[in-house]
From TrEMBL:
Pfam families: CHAD (PF05235), CYTH (PF01928). Transmembrane segments: none annotated. Residues 2-196 form the CYTH domain. Gene3D superfamilies: CHAD domain, Hypothetical Protein Pfu-838710-001. Residues 210-475 form the CHAD domain. This is CHAD domain-containing protein. It comes from Sphingobium naphthae. InterPro entries: CHAD_dom (IPR007899), CHAD_dom_sf (IPR038186), CYTH-like_dom_sf (IPR033469), CYTH_domain (IPR023577), YgiF (IPR039013). SUPFAM superfamilies: CYTH-like phosphatases.
Length: 475
């Protein structure tokens, strides 16, 4: 069994062609045609257990590889790996790999599910004291009648420290645009077998009470980056308003994670990333505001903002393609890969830390939302933002409360939070409508399809009372 550490980067086919000619690569290269078949049970039991099984053929040589689920922070994959030569196109499943133990009797159901077919060009380069293999893969993933293009760079650490991978990645990005990849080839194949999505929601975060605070933060922040990158990848193909919304949600979730874990992070790191993430969310905000406004307006008013909305969508593409966004993603990925600079207190178990942070946020929302009807709109908006942080924190830490009673309380609590967020969101839309109407030359009396402020305040107060009375699942 070995352990691989590699940084995966996504790039376009045009960028790949330019990269292959980059003078930063040595003249000597190795080109191979690689065809890999991936195996699992029909219901993907191996994938659910965090394992992938493939047989890769290059020329006449066949190699079977089992990869275990390891840490994957923004493109840096560190995974256990079991490799062996095989003679046939069917896997050898014995005690030398974890597959048989993982599947039990279901091991007899193993069958080929999808394949990858790529041309791999490899170079060996040095970065200081480190040695890195650069592999450019260009080809396709195929599952049944479906096919998707595959174009990525893998930087695998042969010797030295992982920081070398990011130094090389930045030099590559200075030549051609690249972004941290968050999907393995196996994941791409499984996605191709399922329903093709035009938006990706946040996935559950796998935490357990035995985790350290550090491990929990790295898992949560990595999940946020993965959430963002998957929706960003969709937006780079074509604009989809739900994907834009989820990209902004991912940014907000990451900012909330930085706030929640601030006591164990370096203040300079938190300030730096909060500033850049706030900028990114703001750059995407105009398009989101126009999408929401468009959905609330009647047909004639929708037409009046059509041009402004189309222009905002085009700007989203420009911003996402900017060097500033790509650099931010690489910076976050490296920061997470190298441990995020967590202090000594981060080695403590996460359970008590999580309870304390959730309790503090709960008190802030409970106190801040007292007598909502008397609060000015900007103060209500602050309560709304705190409620979002509390909801994201509750979702992040859900895995720590998996027993039946706290799990039930968690569901009720998050449900109450969602209702409060919805009502405060409607109030915020009502409060910001005049400035949006003025900006886009809409009549002041343009109908928004919302209830009156008085009705919304009554519902918001009711939702706030329900939240403050809901049992706290972390107790």
């Amino acid at each position: 069994m070995g352990r691989e550490i590699e940084l995966k980067l996504d790039l376009s086919e045009d960028a790949a062609s330019r990269l292959a000619q980059w003078d930063g690569l040595p003249e000597r290269e190795d080109v191979a045609h690689l065809r890999a078949t991936y195996f699992d049970t029909p219901d993907a039991q191996l994938a659910r257990k965090g394992l992938s099984l493939r047989i890769r053929q290059s020329g006449r040589r066949k190699v079977q590889t089992v990869k275990g689920d390891g840490s994957a922070a923004g493109g840096l994959f560190a995974r256990q790996e079991w490799e062996r030569p095989v003679r046939s196109h069917m896997p050898v499943l014995d005690a030398q790999t974890p597959v048989q133990e993982a599947l039990g009797d279901a091991v007899d159901q193993i069958e080929p599910l999808f394949e990858t077919d790529v041309e791999r060009t490899r170079w060996l380069i040095r970065e200081g004291e480190a040695q890195v293999e650069v592999a450019l893969d260009r080809g396709a993933v195929r599952a049944g009648a479906r096919e998707a293009a595959l174009c990525e760079v893998e930087l695998e650490l042969v010797a030295g420290a992982p920081a070398a991978l990011f130094a090389i990645a930045r030099r590559i990005d200075g030549e051609v645009p690249v972004r941290p990849a968050v999907l393995s080839k196996a994941e791409r194949g499984y996605l191709l077998r399922g329903e093709m999505a035009d938006v990706v929601k946040a996935e559950p975060v796998a935490l357990d009470p035995a985790m350290s605070i550090r491990a929990a933060f790295l898992t949560i922040a990595g999940a946020c980056l993965r959430h963002y990158r998957r929706n960003e990848a969709l937006l780079l193909v074509h604009y989809e308003e739900r994907a834009l919304h989820q990209a902004r949600v991912a940014v907000r979730r990451l900012r909330s994670a930085l706030t929640l874990f601030k006591p164990v992070l370096l203040e300079a790191d938190v300030a730096r990333f909060q500033q850049e993430l706030r900028w990114l969310a703001g750059m995407l905000g105009e398009a989101r505001d126009l999408d929401v406004l468009h959905g609330r307006l009647a047909d004639d008013a929708q037409a009046a903002i059509g041009q402004a909305r189309a222009q905002s969508h085009a700007r989203v593409r420009e911003w996402l393609e900017s060097a500033r966004v790509r650099g931010l993603l690489l910076d976050i990925a490296e920061w997470l890969a190298l441990g995020a600079g967590c202090g000594g207190a981060a080695d403590e178990p996460v359970a008590d830390f999580a309870a304390g942070r959730l309790q503090k946020l709960h008190k802030r929302v409970a106190k801040g939302g007292d007598d909502l009807a008397q609060l000015p709109p900007d103060t209500r908006h602050k309560v709304r933002k705190d409620a979002k942080k509390l909801r994201y924190g509750s979702e992040f830490f859900a895995g720590l409360y998996s027993a039946k009673k706290p799990r039930k309380a968690h569901g009720a609590y998050v449900g109450a939070l969602e209702k409060l967020q919805d009502k405060l969101g409607d109030l915020n839309d009502l409060a910001t409508a005049p400035s949006l109407f003025a900006r886009y030359h809409l009549a002041e009396d343009t109908p928004l399809g919302l209830k009156s402020e008085k009705q919304l305040l009554r519902k918001a107060e009711k939702a706030h009372d329900a939240l403050t009375e809901a049992p706290r699942f972390w107790r």
